[in-house]
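Structural prep section.
Before we set up the soaks we want a predicted structure of the protein with 6-O-phosphono-beta-D-glucopyranose in place, mainly to decide which crystallisation condition to try first. Input record follows.
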Amino acid sequence: MSEVSNLQNVTVAGPDATVHPIDPGIGRHPDPLALVIFGASGDLAHRKILPALAQLAERGSLPDNFAIVGVARSEWSDEEFRELCKKAAPSSSSATWERLVEGFRYVSGDYGDDTTFATLATVLREIDKERGTSGNRIYYLATIPALFGTVACSLAEHGGNEPAEGGSFARLVVEKPFGSDLESAKKLDAELHKAFREDQIFRIDHYMGKETVQNVLALRFANSIFEPIWNRRYVDHVQVTVAESIGVEHRGGFYETAGALRDIVQNHVMQVLSLTLMEPPSSMDAGGIRDEKVKLLRSVLIPDLDEAVNNVVRAQYARGVVDAREVPGYREEEGVDPNSQTETFVAMLLLVDNWRWAGVPIYVRTGKRLAKRATEVSMVFQRPPHLPFAGKLARDLRPDTLTLRIQPDEGIALSFGAKVPGPAFRVRTVAMDFSYAEAFPGGTADAYERLLLDAMTGDATLFIRSDEVDQAWEIVAPIQRAFLDGEPPLAHYRAGSWGPIEADRLIEGGGRQWRNP
Ligand code: BG6
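Run finished without errors. Recording the tokens verbatim:
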């Protein structure tokens, strides 16, 4: 597969350039193709995949010769599936999506049953004739993860791992979670690789589709002022916060088997961290960026068992108030064991053992039912080597900090000390703030739109390679083992707070403080 990457075609717009509503497809138009969604009647298809495709249709980014085949166990007709697809249309919808939907098909069947795959192969051949989809295929695995391997192998048995006649590609898009630990991730990969080559597999982590996550690359490598200070000589420590105000919603049963470590840290946090801390890539293509990401992950020190207990906090939310509304505790949520030990919050100290970051503490925290939804990375800089100010002023000066706000209120803020006007010499922390919404009023595309379009055009840059997945599991493995042994003891926090006191102690032990967004 070619290593073509949309990130290589960088154009520079002047400050006065007219800003158009964002078009994730500028300059890119996928070839004709049929997209097969396994798990088509499920939550992900309904909430994310179909609306993203409808939005792409709206923007004119889908090929004219395009069709979706939904596959699921629900006994639906083509018409019922089309109705579901129509509901995914954006409110400002034109006729484009509706016109496309008329050609969509649905295959009802069991994933363990060979007939399902034989029927699918027939339907795809019909679609090639009717809709001109030219033998190109994308298979999107949005089923429960336990079925990923089975579906991939059954597809291959029916020739689905090769482009059909006249086609040039067959790709497999795989949703997270990729396994539940290192061993199961390797097993899943071995199954997928029996059927598809690595360059055909597109593993989604939707954080990589977020504009502001990609902006980390622009900030670091399209400017000259940040990179010289992006290292242990200037940075005192790094903080990563992935805070959610929602609870487990209707996913209690799933969350019981996941917990915050698997649900967020192993994937989203590791992705954000690797982009933020990696070395400059030799090129912005899929190989260049992913090589550097995995190199960074390999430099993260794997904690030993003691460190996994002492440098990690795990906690669970108790009842509380979020957005002025009383909310139940985790153990009272539907589908959750009333004695559950599953963590809904994790905080940890990581170290990256390489030339650039040796000795710089990286503090990470994530949790559900926290005070607000906010994902941020902060580079907290060292204090000046000498403060020529007297007593209190010197003590109260806060360190300069560069904060990348990934969501919501996307932007970048640099906070530093400035003199308060007046005869006394007083210094206060102020901020220079760049806001995405102000600079680019057209808005940003949803992460799924971006990633679906990338998969359709064969750009794997923002997808996760198998060595990245494995390395991320390696890092969390000792922590998983400690959790299984009930260590560190499960702490509790009030819903609507910033997490347990233990998380404050973790960072305060190093003489630092969390920056609450
Ligand atoms: C998903 C997790 O991967 O990410 C969810 O499974 C979480 O538990 C979600 O709520 C958060 O995504 P976002 O885009 O809202 O930050």
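Observations: The two ends are 42 Å apart (CA to CA).
Flagged for discussion at group meeting.
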